[in-house]
Amino acid sequence: MLTHEKVLHSGVADTLIQVREKYKSILRKCFVCKKFNSRPGTQIMAPLPRDRIEQSLPFAVTGLDFAGPIYVKNSKEKFYILLCTCTVTRALHLELVTSLTTEAFLLAFRRFISRRGFCTVIYSDNAKTFKRAEIELRRLWTVINHPDVKEFCASRGIKWKYIIERGAWWGGFYERIVRLHQHEILLIPKISTITSISFSNNCHFLTVAQVWSLPF
């Protein structure tokens, strides 16, 4: 009756609106209703770094990661694949690496820049990320952090950036490529019957280039 008099004896619709407004404020204060009726929030994503979206030469900004190990027929050693992914064009370059030593990494990296040109920025995982991987991949941090690698990059004006700890999604642009590549490798039956030379040639032919020519 008080609500009906408050709305100046209006009709049923106006009286119900006033009653609902009164009890809506009570429902908003109910913690049980808040718990079951609330909606999950959405994560606010920061914009991508400028060097990943600005126009640049292919492989000027590159993400590096290793895939493997891979076993071949003519060697008892483990082989790895260095995947170089362009952050802007998403172009992919593969280099066969004989081990995870500093010398093997620098040789593969020199072959990469001799074909694709010098990089200005390189992205890669950090130590905490590789701790979750297998024992062989833990050694990669030692390789990247080696003084020879730092001197090689500093003398050529290459800036090396590491993704944050426990933030593998920051390197998603090359982690996804690694996953696709490993999936294709697992589909090849009896890969141990392939020699290292054959495997290297197969990686080279992915660029649809002749043996004596360099891929562009």
Describe the fold and architecture:
The protein contains nine helices and five strands. The chain has 216 residues and is of the alpha/beta class. A five-stranded mixed β-sheet has the order 3-2-1-4-5, with helices on both faces. β2 and β3 (92-97) form a beta hairpin. This is Integrase catalytic domain-containing protein. GO terms for molecular function: nucleic acid binding. It comes from Trichonephila inaurata madagascariensis.
Number of H- or I-type helical stretches: 9
Shape: elongated
Sequence of secondary-structure elements: HHHEEEHEHHHEHH
For the termini, the CA-CA separation is: 84 Å
Organism: Trichonephila inaurata madagascariensis
Domain Integrase catalytic: 54-216
Protein name: Integrase catalytic domain-containing protein
GO molecular function, one term: nucleic acid binding
Topology:
Elements: H1 2-6, H2 12-28, H3 31-37, E1 61-71, E2 78-86, E3 92-97, H4 102-116, E4 121-124, H5 127-130, H6 135-144, H7 147-155, E5 159-162, H8 172-187, H9 196-205
Parallel strand pairs: 1-4, 4-5
Antiparallel strand pairs: 1-2, 2-3
Quick overview of this protein structure:
This is Integrase catalytic domain-containing protein. By secondary structure, this protein is of the alpha/beta class.
Any key phrases for this structure?
alpha/beta, five-stranded mixed sheet, 43% helix, disordered C terminus
